[in-house]
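User: Hi! I'm working on a homework problem where we have to compare a predicted structure to a textbook description. Could you give me the structure for the chain below?
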Amino acid sequence: MAWRPAPPRVPPAGVHGMRLDLDSPGLLSALLESMADYAVIIVDPDGRVRLWSVGAERLFLYTADEMCGHPVANLFSPDDREAGALDAAVHAALEEGRAWDIRCLVRRDGSHFWAECLLSPVRDAQGRLAGFLQVARDATARKRDEEKMMLLARMDPLTGLANRTALDEKLVDTAQAAARSRRMMVVHMIDLDHFKVVNDRHGHAMGDELLRRVAQRITKVVRSTDFVARLGGDEFVLVQTDVDDPTVGGRVAAQIVEALARPFRIDRAELHIGASIGIAVFPRDSVDTKQLLRMADVALYKVKSDHRGGYHYFTEDMDRIAHRLGTDRAMLREALDCEAFTLHYQPQIDTRDGRVVGMEALLRCEHPALAGYPVHELISLAEGSGLIRDLGVWCLGEACRQARSWRDMGIPPLRMCVNFCAGELNDPNLLERVADVLERTGLTSGDVEIEITEQQLVDYSRPGDTVLDDLRSMGASLAIDDFGTGYSSLGYLAKLPVDRIKLDRSFVERVPEDAMSCTVALAIVNLAHTLDLGIVAEGVETEAQSRFLEATHCEAQQGFYFSRPLDRNVMTRWLLGQPKRSETVIARSAWAR
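Assistant: Happy to help. Predicted C-alpha cells:
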C-alpha cells in the first residue's frame, strides 16, 4: 500500500490547503472542537508530537502528556516503520500538498487497527515548514468490509468455489511454475449434461442445490493441490498442477464423468445428469493460458457434437472449428454492411418515484447465419475480426439518433447507456468518433453513459492511459456493468472516473429468498453509497426483488419486471404511455412486463 495524493472526498472538510499559525490557540481550539471524531496531531519537522487532541486520546489511548515530545512514528506498526511508510508519507505530502492512505496503526495497549490517515504540511506566516498536521479516523470496519468484498469477488457465492477471476490468476501462476519445473498443466473444461432439464422441471432452487452437490463431487475426485472453479451456469474448470504425464488428465476426467453420472438425491427427488469434458495440456497444446481455455472449450464442443458424456483431448484437427469461426467472421462483415444489426432498448427505472431515468441500448443481429449467436459471442467475434470499432460506432450512432428522436417527440430527456468493450477503448480515434456522432445527432456527451463490464475494465486498465478520463472530461459518464462478477478491486473504483455501478443479475435472481444473495446485494449497494456512486440493479424480474432493492435504497432498477428489451417502435409507444415527469409516481401494476 502506498501513500498517494488525497482523493477529493477524504474528510475532514476544511483542512486541505490550510496554513496554520501555531501561535493562534483560538484557531486551533476551534479546529479541534469541530473535529472531535478525529485524531488531530501536529508534529514538528523532526516528527515529534507537539499537539495531541482529545480525539487522538480516544483513538490511540495515549494521553497528551504521554505523546507530546515523542516520535509520531511510534503509532505506526513495526512493519510500516521498517518499510519507511512515514518517510514516504512525508515525501508525498511535501510533493503534492497532502497525502492520504489507510494504514495499520498501534494503540497504547498494543492492539492494531486500520485508520484513514491524512498528512498535510503546516507552514508559518513566511511559508516555511513548521511541521505537519496528521488527521486519523478509525477505518477498521471499512477495511474489513473491503476485504470481505475482495474475497467475494474471487469466489462463486453459490458453490464456494473459485470464480473466473481467481481461475485466470491460477492459470498464469501454474503455467509459470510448470515452465520453471518443466512439468505440465492439464486444463479441463467441464459442462453438465441435461442440467437445463433439471432446472426447468424442478426449479432454480433445486438447480442451485444440484450445482453445489456437483462442486462437492468434483472436489472429492481431484487432489488437494488441484484447482476447481465455476465459470457460471453449469460450467466448471479443473486445473491439474505439477503433472508429468498428460494421460493423467484422461484418467481424472473419466473419474469425474463417473462421479457425476451417479444419481443425485435432493428433496426426495432423484436427479440424473452427466458431464462432458474438454482437455487441453500446457505446454503441449499452447503456452498461452487463454488459448488453453479456448482449446479445452473446443475439445468440449467436440464431445458435445459427437455425443454427450465422456471427455476429449484437444487435437490439431479441430482447426476446422477455427475455420468455421473464420466463416462466421465473414458473415459478421456482411451483416454490418447490409445493416442486419438493430438495437433493442430496456429502461432503467428510478426506485424512488418510478420515472424512466435511463435506457440501455442492446445489440441484436438479424442475419440468418448469425442468428444463433449469443450477443457476447458476437462481440467476441467482432473483436477477433477487427470489426469491433465499426460495430461500436454504429451502436453509439444508432442509440444517439434514437435518443434525439425521442427528445423531439417530447419524451423527457434520459441517459442513453451504450455498451463498450476493451477493443473500442483501444481505438486511438475513439474520442473523435464519439464527438462526430454527438455532433451529427445533436446530443451532448452528458446525455450518454458508457457501460463496460468489470472484467473488461480490469483487462483494459493500464497505467498512464487517459481515454476514460478524456471521455469523462467530455461530459460522458461511466458505468461498470456486471459488477461483482469480476475482480476490479476497490482500487479501480477509487482511481478510475466511475460514476455508476450495475449490480449483476446473478446477485439479484435469488433475492430475497437466499440469505447470501441478500447479503452480497446489500453490501454492493452500501459500497456504492459509501463511494458516492450511482447504482442500478440488473435482472429484476419480480415484485419481491424490486421491493427488496427498494428497501436497500438501490437508486435504480432494470429488468423484465418493468419491461423486456423492445425494438425502437415498441419502446417509443411504451415511453409515450408513461406519465409525464410531473406525475412522479408510477404504480408498479402499470409497469410493462
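For your comparison, note the following. The mean pLDDT is 84. The CA atoms of residues 5 and 99 lie 5 Å apart. Good luck with the assignment!
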